[in-house]
Amino acid sequence: MDDRTEYKPLTFKGRGTASNAVGRFEQLGRKMYDDGWGSLDEEPPPLRTEVTIDASRTIITYNESPDIPFDRSINAYRGCEHGCVYCFARPTHAYLGFSPGLDFESRLFVKPDAAQLLRQELAHPKYRCAPIALGTDTDPYQPIERKYRVTRQILEVLAECRHPVTIVTKSAMIERDLDILAPMAEQGLAHAAISVTTLDRDLARRMEPRAAAPQRRLETIAKLAQASIPVAVMTAPIIPALNDSEMESILEAAKQAGATSAGYVLLRLPLELAGLFEEWLQLHATLKAEHVMSLLRQSRGGKEYDAAFHRRMRGNGPFAEMIGQRFRLAVGRLGLSGRTKLDTTRFQPPKKAGPEQIALF
End-to-end distance of the chain based on CA atoms, in angstroms? Predict the structure, then answer.
């Protein structure tokens, strides 16, 4: 019988999760134990980010989900260095043989050929234009974008082809690309959304350790608005008993900054994420942990998560309905219910490299 004491997870500075449990497809699990030598009392070494080239052959991902407003998206990166503990995309790292925990935020994959692949797909004779969403799983402006500039290259292709795009991000780095986005917005081709989960800097630091600070995100909303780029605020995710009390304050601050529309999502905890989030609560919000999970289960039919379309974003039950009612009243009062429709009629397939082929008549 193994009587070793299982120790509490380590905390790495600048990282969201505290463990690296294997994904659901792995045959062997792993647990950490105190071996009695006292090494676990020491500060863990820095967890450095590793970047690997992703050899994807396509770049546009299509979906038929009835509860999201787009049918195609691009993710320039797999994994996200922002380290948001609640990120619903964490379980996708299991498909790569990595942990949805620390691996998701430290072992990243970049698609350096994304712009070239996009150009090829937009040039296909059967391609039909509809807005492409950036930032649906991982943030297109996470820190490694400074080096790899894949998102900017994608935007350059979309601008050249007059193709509409929507962007969701937590990063102020989107301001770098105002020179592309502002002219696109003038033609009805660009819309941005900034995710603001809390106005509490301390909570944000613990929950989203490498994302922009709350006030910086509000400044980004202002700069986008000043550049005449339609911008929404995403109060997502709403976490019961943790940040739900801030919803109206976030919406008001975003409105003052220049946001014209808003959205929200109730916290989603698919697959491995449920355990990772509960572990984070025990470490960072110990006294609230039980209450948070109780309210979530009440809003998910007694479970940590309900993946059914329409319910997965909003939940159901009294608490979820109250959140929805509060949101509707707030956006109505603030005039944040407007939606921007993007123009698909301007699309032009990318020009071919080299001499143009002579048309045959």
Answer: 83
